[in-house]
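Hey, sorry to bother you again with one of my protein questions. I've been staring at a protein lately and its backbone has me curious. I owe you a coffee for this, so here goes:
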Amino acid sequence: MGGGGPSIAAASGDVAPLLDKKPTPDSGDRIRQGWDMAARRIVAAWALLGSLLLAGGCGDPIEPPAATTAAPCGADIAVSSERAVTLTQFAEDLNLEHPRAFAAVVATLVETSDLPACYLSKAEARAAGWRPGGDLWEQRPGFAIGGDAFRNFEGHLPPGQTYAAADLDYTGGRRGPRRLVYVTDAGAAPAMWVTVDHYNTFTEVPSVP
């Protein structure tokens, strides 16, 4: 028929490209694919976290180092009640952190003219691996440095005596400013002093029976 209507061939040509196109995923498919990808990422993250929590592949979780539980030098030494009362009160008046350990160190010096066995000289500490400014408890937990000579250069203590010093309140880490200074050439019950400010001032320890 005459006129300008579309022919069947033209219509077929218009439809053919549509029939050749592949269907695209609908919105539901896209959501499912997104969830699958997120799930895979979560599983991978948990797997990585699990591998980091295992030590050496042995299955043991990595734990932080245990806190040091050693007591300060002298804390485990028995002291008579009369001495303990006098010496712990003196230590508390000076704000020492471990009055009981202090009392034990002083009582040992009174009885033996020597420090408890938990003290090391600087030479002994170096031989154990310690270095000045370091942590002695990394090599010898519960020990402290003591027994080395104190020269009394400033003359704060009586002249004509030989002195030695021992750390007080040491519980690891760097050495603090607190020391016990005692006479080494007086035999039994030597005179003793405490300095809490690294030899600037001294307080004499009371004598105990």
